[in-house]
Design a protein that fits this description.
Largest sheet: none
CATH topology: Na+/H+ antiporter like fold
Number of domains: 1
Radius of gyration: 19 Å
CATH architecture: Up-down Bundle
Protein name: Bile acid:Na+ symporter, BASS family
CATH class: Mainly Alpha
Helix content: over 70%
InterPro entries: Na+/solute_symporter_sf
Order of helices and strands: HHHHHHHHHHHHHHH
Transmembrane segments: 40-58, 70-90, 96-117, 129-148, 160-181, 193-213, 225-246
Mean pLDDT: 84
Keywords: Membrane, Transmembrane, Transmembrane helix
Number of helices: 15
Structural class: mainly alpha
Length: 310
Amino acid sequence: MHLGLAFIARHGKFGLIIGLVAGLLLPGLAAVMRPWIPEMVALLLFLTAFRIGPVEAVESLDALTRTAATALVLQLVLPLGFIACLWVFGLSLTPLAMAAVLVLAAPSVTGSANFSILLGHDPAPALRLLILGTAILPLTCIPVFFFLPELGGVGEVLRAAARLLSVILTAAVLGFALRYWGFRTLSDRNRASVDGVTVIALAVIVIALMSAIRPAWDRDPWELGFWLLAAFGINFGAQIVTYLGLSALGRRDAVPVSIVSGNRNFALFLVALPPETTEPLLVFLGCYQFPMYLTPTLLRRLYAPRPSAI
């Protein structure tokens, strides 16, 4: 069992690709699994918290302060800056522009720490950003919705954020508690086993998130191609720009922060949008899984650990 899970962990990027392919080829299975996404996300967070441990997650007060500042930049400064650019250049809020705003305003996806692990980097900064970013979302989303009333009401977003935060905190506390009282020291063998289980969980979750892709392909493959290119451009563009900027500043957490910068849980906002605007964004959500789950494969060379960072 240990050897099998360790093998899966070593080849985790291929497990993610298998999940993407399964989501495309098995639309019926994706539809059946979709209602179980919250439970699967909770399991993933539990495994991540257990793998990192409470001591490594907290690290220090300085780390928490830096994380809060980073979350404010990612979720408040960037979306408001993008909105300002739309206003300066007289651009309308097209579905593509709306998708970009929602991505920039959202907190981290739950798998960001796992992607850091697959790329050989410390996952703790990504987990801190996930927790703190979700916690401050009720504050950071209000200015964004104020300047863009087309996005709908804030109340539904706040309720969705509260539900997500409760899931995150519950799963994280349980994972930290089991690690602290049951497995204070995690051996390399056991850590590899946990990473293997996590890869399996990620591959299963993406199948459920791909339920809108196959119908979109059957309806209009050209439109699907447009949204797929947009998803790669927004996701990878944000990651690359963030990484180049943080690396120039010498930030040791450049990789996990960059992963979070491009991989955001913008699905939180869909509950507040009027029905006529959600359909293309649901297709975008499905397309968004491709750059997200291909990050450990396509950006591996960019994020390769460097001797100076050790």
